Structure to design on (373 residues):
């Protein structure tokens, strides 16, 4: 019997700012996913936003880039770029156009009008973020509805999102494919820690954008009750300057126990994960938090707010506290800092549920079903 060769596809990707090393959950997702899709023999073209794309090559790990200019205002950036990307996609004649996030999904009807097959990924209910005003929230909700109505298939990153879409929009063309994580061995180096002035095992770690919905103000308030000698490292930055970011930075500058090094990547970030005493994610809004999965992959004990997307990670109840309750966060944090934790307790969960190679295979299968190949 002759084995039939699998047909390769052309995939056009939009809805992201860019990669590699561009901050953001969607960006991290695409950075891990699409080189794996390309390695399966498919042609992958990613439309990236010129103001954010730091990599100046035309191709990275098998993924080709189309760099398109766009405004950097929060209101018009995504919609303008996605509109240009849809026109560019038509010229490339892809088998699949994959739109990431509900804002860019506003253009799903345009893609279908232009005769393209659309897959969209719902990464989270972005209209719940505090930074959006009333008009922007309405547009994001419209994008969610249009993505459900006009996409040939909707990928959702959690069961809770699938349930919401079914209840609100009657959306049944959904497939649950979570975010993933690459399991990495802990590093033994401490050069970066020494530059920051922290000791291995002597700090609590948060990795986050500096925006209100991440709840870092609650963490800073709760950390006032942390044991003496313990420090707090908040690794991350914000896409745009804001009053919230300035207040966080001012607070850190006035407290020698709080360190905010900005956006951290590569081996420096690996050091932070490898030697932290505890990882905390105090967010009010998430999709499925990649940073929590990364902390799990390094074998760290975790403490997360009890919002539904964080609960979707599947940790035991003792690893959650009531969102927005700084006093409860302080109590739980003090308890966990005083405990001896089993190293690598969640590694098997990460390997079986959140493996990027498995996720790439499941995404490829969605593409084949939609493209009919």
């Amino acid at each position: 019997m002759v084995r039939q060769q699998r047909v390769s596809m052309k995939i056009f990707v939009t809805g992201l700012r860019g990669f590699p090393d561009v901050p953001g959950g969607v960006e991290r997702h695409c950075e891990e996913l699409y080189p794996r899709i390309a390695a399966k023999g498919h042609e992958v073209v990613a439309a990236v936003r010129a103001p954010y794309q730091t990599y100046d090559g035309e191709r990275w790990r098998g993924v080709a880039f189309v760099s398109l200019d766009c405004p950097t205002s929060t209101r018009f950036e995504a919609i303008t770029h996605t509109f240009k990307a849809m026109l560019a996609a038509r010229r490339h004649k892809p088998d699949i156009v994959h739109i990431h996030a509900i804002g860019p999904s506003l253009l799903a009807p345009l893609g279908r009008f232009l005769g393209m097959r659309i897959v969209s990924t719902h990464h989270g209910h972005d209209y719940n973020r505090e930074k959006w005003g009333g008009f922007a929230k309405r547009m994001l909700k419209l994008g969610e509805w249009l993505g459900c109505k006009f996409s040939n298939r909707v990928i959702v990153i959690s069961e809770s999102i699938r349930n919401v879409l079914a209840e609100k929009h009657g959306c049944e063309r959904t497939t649950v494919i979570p975010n993933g994580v690459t399991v990495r061995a802990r590093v033994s180096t401490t050069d970066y820690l020494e530059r920051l002035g922290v000791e291995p095992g002597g700090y609590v770690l948060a990795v986050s954008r500096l925006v209100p919905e991440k709840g870092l103000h609650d963490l800073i308030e709760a950390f006032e009750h942390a044991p003496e000698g313990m420090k707090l490292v908040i690794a991350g930055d914000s896409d745009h300057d804001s009053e919230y970011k300035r207040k966080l930075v001012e607070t850190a500058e006035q407290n020698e126990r709080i360190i905010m090094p900005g956006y951290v990547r590569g081996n420096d970030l690996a050091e932070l994960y490898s030697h932290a005493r505890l990882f905390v994610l105090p967010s009010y809004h998430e999709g499925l938090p990649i940073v929590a999965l990364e902390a799990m992959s390094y074998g760290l004990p975790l403490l997360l707010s009890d919002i539904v997307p964080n609960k979707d990670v599947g940790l035991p109840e003792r690893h959650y506290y009531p969102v927005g309750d700084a006093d409860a966060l302080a109590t739980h944090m003090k308890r966990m800092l005083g405990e001896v934790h089993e190293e690598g307790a969640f590694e098997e969960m990460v390997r079986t549920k959140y493996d990027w190679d498995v996720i790439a295979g499941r995404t490829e299968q969605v593409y084949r079903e939609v493209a009919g190949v």
